[in-house]
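Q: I'm writing a short explainer about Pyridine nucleotide-disulfide oxidoreductase domain-containing protein 2 for a general audience and would like to include a description of its predicted shape. Could you first generate the structure from this sequence?
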Amino acid sequence: MAAGGRGLIRALHSSPCPAWKRAQSGANGRLKPEYDAVVIGAGHNGLVAAAYLQRLGVNTAVFERRHVIGGAAVTEEIIPGFKFSRASYLLSLLRPQIYTDLELKKHGLKLHLRDPYSFTPMLEEGTLSRLPRSLLLGTDMAANQKQISQFSRKDAQAFPKYEEFMKRLVLAIDPLLDAAPVDTAAFRHGSLLQRLRALSTLKPLLKAGRTLGAQLPQYYEVLTAPISKVLDQWFESEPLKATLATDAVIGAMTSPHTPGSGYVLLHHVMGSLEGMQGAWSYVQGGMGALSDAIANSAATHGASIFTEKTVAKVQMNSEGRVQGVTLQDGDEVRSRVVLSCASPQVTFLELTPQEWLPGAFVKRISQLDTQSPVTKINVAVDRLPNFQAAPNAPGDKPQAHHQCSIHLNCEDTLLLHQAFEDAKGGLPSQKPMIELCIPSSLDPTLAPPGCHVVSLFTQYTPYTLAGGKVWDEQEKNTYADKVFDCIEAYAPGFKRSVLARDILTPPDLERIFGLPGGNIFHGAMSLDQLYFARPVPQHSDYRCPVQGLYLCGSGAHPGGGVMGAAGRNAAHVVLRDLKNM
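A: Of course. Here's the predicted structure. Afterward I'll give you a sentence or two in plain language.
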């Protein structure tokens, strides 16, 4: 790919031949006419579902339309020697039970935990004796307070209390992620046994209420109010508020002033890795290595995983029950159940015969909010970015801030809101919010010696541009140039270091990865599309109006992020149903 960012992208597996791929050449690699379960899509949730089903004796096949597994959790090689986590790029939310149950460490998963984890440089005039300020945050609370005190001593004192406040909310909500939402329909129409089973699903909700106790009203405000209002109650310094607010808007077509943006922040701080609450990590070999580890676990127990096998249609019998799938090449595969890791729109509006779905259900699915502000830019560089606020060390060795999520154009929540307002008018942000990550700072296997891979998660860019414009190469490169100009202001010389770039706008993310509207969560993580209402009310338990068809991707509870919970939860629901068939 030329330095201007034009050319073809070559995709490879994160290792030369992972175990699941080797299994394809054996008995598990031959397509059988019938399986117990079929999974549509080898995104990480689909692979998790397959692994759990197969471990418990359900003969399972996974069909992936692309030549590489993982959905958005993939490693792809842009130019020889440079390996990119092309879409998702960080790991934190993966449920601890999945890490343990599927023995992912045994199957090749290696993590590089980041500490510190956040770096926000300021655009200020420096002097020979004083560099521009920056905000560096990590797990050391005393160090965090020292950093924050540059901007406000009051905020430095408040920060530990804020962290404890948020940790308690995470503790309350965490159990809700690992089970289907309360089955309200069973209370009204179910048998006695179904009603008793539905009562058991109330336990996590009741436990959450007890955990929050008398502070429940304050926590309710965090979930429903604009994050700017919540942060204003805690802090006065804009660099700290804007840095924290990025977690509330990242991946979402929302402003810090949008009601309900607080939940998205919570969604991004509730992770835990290797016993460390709130930890974020890079995956050795890129995010595709995580998908390979999950697939290896599934294949070890006998699951069959097929790439370049596109499912064209879900098959139904004359009684309206699922009986398998038809592949694009014409092959028909029978199964007792079908789980779809695809988005709700693809699953129910494209793959499922419409005559078997209620009109009201189809209408609700078609009306889901899938707006996305994200353009992901993957960059190969021949040196580390050199930030004015934290100059590089001799020898160009990575420093602590290089391993962080580096927040640019994030000195003030007003900047974030203005960037959002641009996109609401159909224009790419004039000053985009940029999260810059350099995974090769901790994982040198991703790039040749001395070189690095840079991930730019940017927003806000609308799916549909104003004035009849489309996201052609000219528009994409104009936007990328604007992003690079912004980076150059913080790290002079960045543009000269660029060897290649891969620009993925919302339509690209939709086309390549199947993300509806380019939305990384398969749908907005707004309160009207969560828990009971994900993907739509009355169908939040992974089942759908068609018997034997289940949703197991990010469009189901508890939503997006590389979490695996939807896949695991759906697998447990399927197992219960199979026992009753």
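A: For your explainer, you could say: The chain has 20 helices and 20 strands.
Q: Perfect, that's easy to follow.
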